[in-house]
Design brief:
The chain has 445 residues and is of the alpha/beta class. The chain has 14 helices and 18 strands. The strands form five sheets. The chain has a six-stranded mixed beta sheet, sandwiched between helices. A five-stranded mixed beta sheet has the order 8-7-9-10-11, sandwiched between helices. The radius of gyration is 22 Å and the shape is globular. It starts with 10 loop residues before the first strand and ends with a helix.
C-alpha cells in the first residue's frame, strides 16, 4: 500500500508547504490516539533541531497531543538519538523529533519513535495515516481529560552521560585534539560538552544556530569548513555531525574525509578482535561501496544489504542479531547502545579505537580502497512521476553493460523529488558512461 505522508524517514517537506501546523496537529492527534494505552495519562516527548519552523511545528504538535489527552514533555533542541533514548528512559509512550536532518532550514520534518525507542514500522505509520484521513472527526478528550505540557530542563546532561557511558570507564580522550562540527544543529551544545568531559581538547564550529543556518556550509554534508579547521588547529580528528546528529563523517589529521563505509569497517574489525561482534558481519544498504564488501570478506565477515534508509538497516539487524550496521552517508547504528543512528556515539567508538591502537586516524580508519563510485540525481519536476517499469528498463540496460565488474542502483528518493542513480565498478570510465546514459534515459522518459 502506498503511503501518503510518510517517506523513508518520517514526514518531510517544505515548512508551511508540506509541513503545516494543520498537518503537524493531525499527526499528533492520530499518533496520540493510536498510542493511548492503559488507564493512566499517556505521555509524549518532543525534541527538535534548530530550524526557525521548529517553534511552529512544536506548538502545533503540543496542541494536538494535549487535545487527545496526552501529557507533553518538551525537550527543546536535542539530537534525534537523544530523543530516542529519552523516550525509553522517561517511559514515554511515543517520541517525536522535529527535524529535516541534513536538509536546509526551509524544510522540516517529523520523525516518530515507539515506547521502545525504535522508529515506527511501516504498518504503524499506515495506521496513523488512516486515522488522519478518516472522514469521521477524531475523538478529542473531555475538558477534564486534556493533557498538560511542560519543558524538561536537564535532558542535555542525561544524554551526555548516556553517550559517555558507551566508552569504558577507564578510557579517556585526554591528549586528543578534536574539532567537532555540529552543523548549527541539534547537537551544538551536547557534542562539545561530552567530548570536553571525556578529557579532549575541543575546538567547535557550527555551534551558532540562528534558525536559518542549519547545515549551511557546515556539517556532514558540507565538510569543507571542518577540513580547513582540522588543518588549521593541527587536530588529531574532525567530527562532522548533521542537523539532527544521527549521522557522522570523520576527517583525519591530514584533512581527508572518512565516510560511513570506512567507519563501519573500522568498528567491525575492532569489535571482531575484541569479541563484541554479535554476528560475523554487518548490515549496510545498497549504496555502500563494493570495496567495503570485498574488505569484509577478506577478514571473514559478511555484508548484508538492505533498502536505503537506516530504519531498514535496523530492522534487518534486529531480525538477524547483528549489532553493527549503517549507511555510507554516516548513519551508524551500534545496537548494543542505541536504537537509531547516533553520530556522537559512533565517533566515540572511532576515538576509542584510535586510543587503543595508538595510531593516527588516517591509519586506523582507512581500511580499504573504495571502488570508483558515481552518484547522480535526476530531479523530477513538480507533479512528474516515473513508473517502476521505466526505471527498471533503464537499470537493466545499464547492468548489462557493467556485467559482473560493477553494480548499478536506481531508486526514488524517499525525502526529495529526485531519482538517485548510483554506479560503481573497477572501470571508472565505463561506470561514468553507464550512469550518464541512465540519467539521460530517465530525463527523457
Amino acid at each position: 500500500m502506498t503511503r501518503k505522508y510518510f517517506g523513508t524517514d518520517g514526514i518531510r517537506g517544505k515548512a508551511n508547504g508540506v509541513i503545516t501546523p494543520s498537518l503537524a496537529m493531525q499527526v499528533a492527534q492520530a499518533t496520540g490516539l493510536l498510542f493511548q494505552r492503559g488507564d493512566y495519562t499517556n505521555r509524549v516527548v518532543i525534541g527538535k533541531d534548530t530550524r526557525l519552523s521548529g517553534y511552529m511545528i512544536e506548538s502545533a504538535m503540543q496542541a494536538g497531543f494535549t487535545s487527545v489527552g496526552m501529557d507533553v514533555l518538551l525537550l527543546g533542541p536535542m539530537p534525534t538519538p537523544a530523543v530516542a533514548m529519552l523516550t525509553r528512559s522517561m517511559r514515554a509512550d511515543v517520541g517525536i523529533m522535529i527535524s529535516a536532518s541534513h536538509n536546509t532550514y526551509e524544510d522540516n520534518g517529523i520523525k516518530l519513535f515507539g515506547p521502545d525507542g525504535y522508529k515506527l514500522s511501516d504498518e504503524i505509520e499506515l495506521k496513523i495515516e488512516s486515522l488522519m484521513d478518516q472522514k469521521a472527526p477524531l475523538k478529542l478528550s473531555k475538558p477534564a481529560d486534556l493533557g498538560r505540557a511542560k519543558r524538561v530542563d536537564d535532558v542535555r546532561a542525561r544524554y551526555i552521560e548516556f553517550a559517555k557511558h558507551t566508552l569504558p570507564r577507564n578510557l579517556s580522550l585526554d591528549g586528543l585534539r578534536i574539532v567537532v562540527d555540529c552543523a548549527n544543529g541539534a547537537s551544538y551544545k551536547v557534542a562539545p560538552e561530552a567530548l570536553w568531559e571525556l578529557g579532549a581538547e575541543v575546538f567547535s564550529i557550527g555551534v551558532e544556530p540562528d534558525g536559518f543556518n542549519i547545515n549551511r556550509d557546515v556539517g556532514s554534508t558540507s565538510p569543507h569548513a571542518l577540513i580547513k579547521k582540522v588543518r588549521e588547529m593541527r587536530a588529531d580528528i574532525g567530527i562532522a555531525l548533521d542537523g539532527d546528529a544521527d549521522r557522522v563523517l570523520i576527517v583525519d589529521e591530514l584533512g581527508h574525509v572518512v565516510d560511513g563505509d570506512q567507519v563501519m569497517a573500522a568498528i567491525a574489525e575492532f569489535w571482531q578482535e575484541s569479541g563484541k561482534l554479535s554476528q560475523p558481519g554487518i548490515v549496510a544498504t545498497l549504496m555502500s561501496n563494493l570495496g567495503l564488501e570485498r574488505y569484509l570478506g577478506g577478514i571473514g565477515l559478511s555484508l548484508a544489504r538492505t533498502a536505503v534508509g537506516d530504519r531498514y538497516v535496523l530492522e534487518h539487524m534486529r531480525q538477524h542479531g547483528y549489532n553493527v550496521g549503517g549507511e555510507q552517508s554516516g548513519h551508524i547504528i551500534l545496537s548494543d547502545y542505541v536504537t537509531t543512528g547516533d553520530g556522537l556515539v559512533a565517533a566515540l567508538q572511532v576515538m576509542a579505537l584510535v586510543k587503543k591502537r595508538g595510531r593516527p586516524v588516517s591509519e586506523v580508519c582507512h581500511r580499504f580502497e573504495p571502488v570508483p563510485q558515481i552518484l547522480r540525481n535526476v530531479r523530477l519536476e513538480a507533479g512528474r512521476k516515473l513508473g517502476e517499469d521505466r526505471i527498471e528498463t533503464a537499470a537493466a540496460a545499464g547492468r548489462e553493460r557493467l556485467g559482473t565488474s560493477g553494480r548499478l542502483v536506481i531508486r526514488l528518493s524517499g525525502t526529495e523529488p529526485v531519482v538517485r542513480v548510483m554506479g560503481e565498478g573497477d572501470n571508472f570510465d565505463l561506470v561514468e558512461a553507464v550512469v550518464d546514459d541512465v540519467c539521460e534515459a530517465l530525463q527523457a522518459a
